[in-house]
Amino acid sequence: MPQTDPFVVEGTLRNVGIQVPEAIEQCSGISLYGHCVKSLIFSTDIAIIRNSNAGAVLAVYPFTCQPAITQALLSAAEMPVLTGVGGAVTTGQRAIDLAVHSDMQGVAGVVVNASTDPNTIARMAERVDVPIVVTVTKLDAMAFDQIAAGARIVNVAAAKETPRVVADIRRAFPAMPIMASGGSTDESILSTIDAGANAISWTPPTLQELERRIMDRHRQKNDLTFVAA
After folding, report:
1. Are 183 and 156 in contact (CB under 8 A)?
2. Care to name a GO molecular-function term for this sequence (predicted)?
3. 96, 163, 180, 215: least CB-packed within 10 angstroms?
């Protein structure tokens, strides 16, 4: 019988310490410049990103986009990076300029949020070659206008309503690539995929949470060693 699963090759010290949920593999994926992306890790923590097996990075943060941060992420990540360039804080020409700069730096996509004016998206689409990803919370007139203006991927972030919104978008735009937040359980991830999502964004544990888990394991190991002695 031929080998069907990939062979695993890792280092003694360096290995993939943060695994995205296996349920995400059920989605079809979105092809970004030859990379089939099924999972996106929602993080700007380089240590987290560097030790994850996610297919791409979703680098959206609650401050204006800073090229220095984008460059650091691109230097550290071993997968495509999509970075936020516009929303409630950064608007208009500033968002367009940041999108152009991010494109030149080498990102795989630029992300704008639900409040971004469709006119800004249209002007941005004239300047950048990478896809514009619009984040939506519902399929309303604004979302229709943003898609018509040039958004090429929809990112659904609607909390528990995400599967319903994904289904609405899939019905309205059968050929539109959709990425969406999948929640924290296999059930919610699969529900989002069944609704029509092609890729899932996943929020990893924080570095502090991971450090605490490791320390807890070490303490338990030391306790058991002491008792056994």
Report:
1. no
2. dioxygenase activity
3. 215
The C-alpha atoms of residue 51 and residue 56 are separated, in whole angstroms, by: 12
Counted domains in the chain: 1
Tell me: pLDDT of 159 over 60: yes
Residue 127 has pLDDT above 90, yes or no: yes
pTM beyond 0.90: the answer is no
Q: How many whole angstroms separate alpha carbon 226 and alpha carbon 224?
A: 5
**Residue 15's pLDDT is what?**
63
Q: Are 162 and 181 contacting, i.e. CB atoms less than 8 angstroms apart? A: yes
Domain-embedded: residue 60: yes
Q: Give the per-residue pLDDT at 6.
A: 75
Q: Residue 124's domain is classified under what CATH number?
A: 3.20.20.60
Q: Could you tell me the residue range of the domain that residue 129 belongs to?
A: 22-204
